[in-house]
């Protein structure tokens, strides 16, 4: 089930937050409303952590990348922030600071729980870290001729969304590489920057408030959000109870 | 790009389809990622563009006003009108790009002009939208300033130039007319009027009149005076309206005049024989002493410092027949023209055969004359000389006859009535309607005919004049010359083919030959 949301008038919520299957990171600053929407949707048991990265920067979504196994942060992150993250995130999540001079992990790397799509020129060391921390296979590819694939696509274990300008052949190729079905679409009323516009995990998604109904339906269908909902599970159980 | 050139395999790229983010219809991606209909419905690029505008039109001269003051002539649905309308819209359409503009037909009397523009503008993330937009111009009638002034008083002029020459013939004015036509000096004249001994030109602007006076002074030795008369005065803005008059007096010396120079002038030229012939008048007067073949040039200032009059002019020419020629010197070139001193024996044509009056005279026409030729000259023997300057000379030896030029009269008599292959244009002058117009007209036509003969005989006179080919002229079949020498005529390559682009020419059968 996808929810529309906004961070202080900006519809690019992917910059200010990060959502994985195990946790959710939300930036500090801004109103409590931003945080409370995540909390309300994801439930009390799910860790929603308020943090800043890289010396108090608010754009945490753009700076770090992670999945249920681990989280990678840039070298500008302070020790306190790393410690804060380690304290609040579940124990199985490894938090590691990468020393390579990359500032915007989100545009270089895009990953789900099994595969990561990275910038073709990434360091070999960083790749090792990715394999180690995130527990994924690394695929180096560009999207639509652009090396910074991370911002143009967003994928989970169920499916993925890429920018509209991708050609059919490229879509097929990426789909085979990443082993998830991919669809070209837009978010935030025609914006082509997918990872900034929508954050998604296996059962829920949040997109910018400018997203139109059409785009929302595309997101829900490709990420298969309609079926996997916590509320759905509850409903099913109630039905069984009534009938029995 | 480079990859393709290097021969690397590039997989074919087909453009994918996405759903329009608003209506969900499948479309190929564009920079707004909305289908065209959604884009059009959301964004109107003609917002803020003018839909109506006003134009001021002068019905008299069919001009449109471009503020603050210029009036531009344009026909309905013409290129000029299109440019004009677009220029009026320019400041309002700064942000959009106009791709195409065309007129939409409107009823000619509806006083509306409709323009259809195709506009391109960038919207959202760089998508360029093209849309058509109609602007309606309302035409308001408003007389332009010159038409208002003309309506108030049709004869309104601001500056007048009065050309006068105090001689009894109008040859100078015929020549001047051709000169003016050739250089277009009177193109700004509102009105041209013929007066008794000259022509009046009326202009709407003082500077036009000054330019005209300058042109005249450069072509002919003339003296000018100017004057102004106050017409109205606006005390509040302290502007004064004047009427300016320029009085131009052309020097009375013409070609082929016999002049007796005043002693001072003769001395200043090195004792040039007091009897001189005027050979050429341009911006200076060329005076030839026929007995010594010396030429002197007198320019306008020098002439007007001590003006003198001719004492015999071409009216008083008498025809002579040449009996014998005795060349004294060889042909020399003086002042661009060939002359040769000779002693000739001539007799007046009226005397020839009747009595034996033969004159033995010295002339400058030795190179032209042969026995049996006819010549025109001044008969001083029989003339009654009444000149002030002549009296100043004591003991002056006056020759009996001074020959001026060879005569083609006899030949002309044979070829009378034959048409010319060329013709001249003329200025449209208002003739001063007076009672004694009739006899003047005959004199006028005779003078004009003589002027045309002059043109035929003298190539240097044709220098500054445009001669036009006469389309109605058919050379006669019997073109072979019976007599030995031809009448001098204008060679064909000097004639200009008439260019008919204006509607008020008489013969406009076909244009350029």
Automatic annotation (TrEMBL), chain A:
Signal peptide: none annotated. Keywords: Cytoplasm, Initiation factor, Nucleus, Protein biosynthesis, Ribosome biogenesis. Transmembrane segments: none annotated. GO terms for biological process: cytosolic ribosome assembly; ribosomal large subunit biogenesis. Its main location: cytoplasm. One of its GO terms (molecular function) is translation initiation factor activity. InterPro entries: eIF6 (IPR002769). Belongs to the eIF-6 family. Binds to the 60S ribosomal subunit and prevents its association with the 40S ribosomal subunit to form the 80S initiation complex in the cytoplasm. May also be involved in ribosome biogenesis. This is Eukaryotic translation initiation factor 6. It comes from Platanthera zijinensis. The lineage of its organism: Eukaryota, Viridiplantae, Streptophyta, Embryophyta, Tracheophyta. The gene is EIF6-2.
TrEMBL record, chain B:
It is found in: Cytoplasm; Nucleus. GO terms for molecular function: ribosomal large subunit binding. Pfam families: NMD3, NMD_SH3, OB_NMD3. Keywords: Cytoplasm, Nucleus, Protein transport, Transport. Its main location: cytoplasm. GO terms for cellular component: cytoplasm; nucleus. PANTHER family: 60S RIBOSOMAL EXPORT PROTEIN NMD3 (PTHR12746:SF2), NONSENSE-MEDIATED MRNA DECAY PROTEIN 3 (PTHR12746). This is 60S ribosomal export protein NMD3.
């Amino acid at each position: 089930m996808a929810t529309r949301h906004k961070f202080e008038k900006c519809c690019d919520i992917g910059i200010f937050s990060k959502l994985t299957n195990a946790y959710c990171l939300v930036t500090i600053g801004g109103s409590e409303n931003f945080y409370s929407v995540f909390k309300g949707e994801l439930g009390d048991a799910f860790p929603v952590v308020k943090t800043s990265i890289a010396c108090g920067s608010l754009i945490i979504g753009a700076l770090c990348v992670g999945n249920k196994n681990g989280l990678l942060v840039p070298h500008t992150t302070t020790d306190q922030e790393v410690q804060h993250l380690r304290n609040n995130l579940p124990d199985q999540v490894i938090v590691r600071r990468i020393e390579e001079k990359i500032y915007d992990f989100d545009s270089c790397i895009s990953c789900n729980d099994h595969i990561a799509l990275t910038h073709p020129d990434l360091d070999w060391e960083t790749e090792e870290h990715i394999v180690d921390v995130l527990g994924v296979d690394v695929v180096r590819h560009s999207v639509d001729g652009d090396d910074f694939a991370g911002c143009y696509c967003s994928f989970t274990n169920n499916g993925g969304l890429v920018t509209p300008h991708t050609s059919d052949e490229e879509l097929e190729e990426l789909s085979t590489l990443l082993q998830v079905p991919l669809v070209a679409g837009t978010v935030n009323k025609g914006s082509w920057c997918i990872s900034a516009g929508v954050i998604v995990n296996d059962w829920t998604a949040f997109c910018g408030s400018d997203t139109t109904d059409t785009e929302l339906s595309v997101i829900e269908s490709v990420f298969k959000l309609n079926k996997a909902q916590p509320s759905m599970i509850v409903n099913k159980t109630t039905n069984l109870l009534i009938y029995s | 790009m480079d990859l393709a050139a290097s021969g690397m395999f590039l997989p074919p790229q087909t453009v994918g389809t996405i759903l329009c983010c608003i209506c969900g219809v499948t479309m190929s991606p564009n920079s707004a990622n909305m289908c065209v209909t959604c884009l059009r419905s959301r964004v109107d690029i003609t917002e803020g563009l003018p839909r109506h505008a006003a134009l001021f039109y002068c019905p008299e001269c069919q001009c449109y006003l471009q503020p603050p003051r210029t009036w531009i002539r344009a026909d309905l649905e013409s290129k000029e009108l299109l440019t004009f309308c677009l220029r009026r819209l320019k400041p309002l359409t700064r942000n959009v790009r106009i791709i195409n503009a065309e007129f939409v037909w409107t009823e000619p009397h509806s006083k509306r002009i409709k323009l259809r523009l195709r506009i391109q503008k960038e919207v959202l993330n760089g998508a360029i939208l093209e849309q058509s937009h109609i602007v309606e111009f309302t035409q308001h009638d408003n007389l332009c300033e010159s038409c208002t002034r003309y309506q108030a008083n049709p004869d309104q002029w601001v500056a007048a130039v009065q050309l006068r020459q105090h001689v009894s013939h109008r040859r100078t004015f015929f020549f001047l007319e051709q000169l003016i036509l050739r250089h277009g000096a009177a193109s700004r004249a509102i009105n041209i009027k013929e007066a008794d001994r000259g022509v009046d030109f009326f202009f709407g602007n003082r500077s036009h009149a000054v330019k005209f006076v300058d042109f005249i002074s450069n072509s002919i030795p003339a003296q000018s005076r100017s004057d102004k008369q106050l017409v109205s005065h606006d005390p509040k803005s302290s502007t004064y309206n004047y009427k300016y008059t320029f009085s131009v007096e052309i020097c009375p010396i013409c070609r082929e005049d016999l002049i007796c120079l005043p002693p001072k002038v003769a001395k200043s030229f090195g004792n040039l024989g007091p009897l001189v012939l005027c050979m050429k008048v341009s911006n200076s007067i060329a005076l030839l002493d026929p007995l010594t073949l010396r030429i002197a040039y007198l320019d306008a200032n020098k002439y007007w410092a001590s003006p003198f009059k001719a004492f015999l002019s071409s009216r008083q020419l008498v025809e002579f027949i040449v009996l014998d020629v005795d060349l004294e010197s060889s042909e020399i070139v003086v002042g661009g023209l060939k002359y040769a001193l000779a002693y000739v024996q001539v007799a007046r044509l009226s005397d020839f055969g009747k009595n034996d009056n033969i004159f033995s005279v010295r002339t400058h026409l030795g190179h032209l004359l042969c026995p049996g030729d006819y010549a025109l000259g001044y008969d001083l023997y029989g003339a009654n000389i009444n000149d002030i300057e002549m009296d100043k000379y004591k003991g002056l030896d006056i020759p009996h006859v001074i020959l001026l030029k060879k005569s083609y009269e006899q030949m002309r008599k044979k070829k009378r009535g034959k048409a010319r292959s060329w013709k001249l244009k003329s200025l449209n002058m208002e003739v001063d309607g007076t009672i004694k117009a009739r006899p003047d007209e005959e004199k006028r036509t005779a003078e004009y005919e003589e002027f045309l003969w002059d043109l035929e005989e003298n190539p240097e006179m044709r220098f500054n004049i445009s001669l036009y080919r006469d389309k109605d002229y058919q050379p006669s079949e019997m073109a072979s010359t019976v007599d030995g020498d031809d009448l001098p005529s204008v060679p064909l390559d000097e004639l200009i083919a008439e260019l008919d682009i204006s509607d008020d020419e008489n013969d406009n059968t076909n244009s350029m030959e």
